[in-house]
Amino acid sequence: MKYLHLITSISLFFCLSLKAEEKVYERVYLHTDKDCYLAGEDVLLKFYTVNSNFKPSLLSKVGYVEISDTKRPWSQLKVALEKGQGAGTVKLPAELPTGIYRLTGYTRYMRNEGEAVFFKKQIAVVNAGQPFPDPSRFTPVDNYKQLQAFENDTLVSMQPATIKITTGQNSYGNRSKVDLSLLNIPENTVNLVVSVSRNDSIAQLPEINPASWRKQVTGTFAFSGQWVPEYEGHIIPGRFVPEPKEELLANMAFVGNNIRYTNGQINPSNGTINFFTAGISGRRQLVTTAMPLSYEKLHYRVDLLSPFDESLPESLPVLRIYPDKKTLTERYTGVQLQAKIENDSLENAIRILNEPSFQPALSYNLDEYARFGTLSEILLEFVKTVYVDKVKGKRIIATTTESSLKTLVLLDGIPIYDHEDILRYNPANIKTIDIYTGTYAFGNEVFGNIVSFITYEGNLPFFRLSDESQLIDYDFPRLPSTFEMPDYSSDRIRNSDKPDFRHTLYWNPFVETANGQPVNLSFYTSDLCGEFKVTVEGITDTGEIIRGKAYFRVNRKVR
Fold it and tell me: Residue 7 belongs to what domain range?
């Protein structure tokens, strides 16, 4: 018997047996590329999880990030974690009002202790396209010195910077190479992030107090035991609608050429459902189905619930801002240009791990055969071991192999419970038919053989799902993406007319260190001029937060 996409009972037993008194905790630290953003910009972040001994946590495979005000979460992100760390990008909505927002990071397992243990950081957002900002959310100041005074008043608890940063020069031209060196890195550094962005001095916000963060990591809180950690991958919550009066199966399958099909785990105490997944990232199409054990059609469905905690701050401070019109106009132009570039080259890369390695016993490319008008004729004429039978007046697809079990019928990876739906489907849309022989277990269901129909498009074209099924676009945890920056070493690229309004020149969430040795990095400036800030932040294996800052200027260079 072949078991496909089944969460191992060993790992679940391990997760469920964790107790608060064993001091198996997780804590999070979020690094961002800067603290002040424009509405519509991307927030680049690093997600880092540690246990109570400040070692990278291996417990959770997913991190959660939310950007909220006192009324609602505005942006949310799931981050794929590997060995306790991950990175991602959060898009700020273009309609986000000017003000201070809370950036929150946590894992599913941390929800057992409540939002008191979540990582929280303030970020500033300025909406340059908003004609009448809410005066209760921000206060303008007259000059930079007032912001600097605010910074001096609020950052008195900061740990002095320990990392020395040097650049080859104090000033550069546009599209020039900058060589960066990091010195005095502690030998026990386990997490280091580097960001370079323009120092606009629009707003200043307090940074995380290292002592408070260390206290949070070592402190203990009440532990509910309600939330199983995502030890193997993302757990998708759901529920039946309406509330069922009989025993149902909750199924989930992914649209595509591969077979990924699983049952949901139903909690009898509250009727919620958990779908356990592993090795899936990016946006995927999936289908949820509510079916009784008899496989008779009933009017139930499975709705997916938000996996986010969605707790909100009770209050947020008023943003103090210096509204430099020239600076805001340049950044606003850059945001609009970047949005245009992203729309022109939109690519939603996905990655799937642990795909089934088994191969079909028989595979039929229908382009190699004469086409018939119905699928039943094709099965009768060409496909061995598969035939159409009639049971209780209904047609079903069955196999000739000796098995008393039902045959699992799939269309582009989605199970078809009423075989009449696929038998009425236009066979001109189908490219291949794959036959898998043997016994297959998917959670609580066991099937004898699989008949898989794959269309040319691979996305259920012109197929109508049953009332018990829903097609959903779902965002799975995001894998780290490469920070895109141009290479101006070539005269042709350096002299091109393509504008470059990058505000963040460099972002490296995974800086590699080696026993305190210097780290050398390089990048190119953009078309923006002004003062730029290099920010380095990291954590040692004893939980010490290390920081460093440096500045250089970019002057207009005639090309």
Answer: 2-181+200-224+312-349
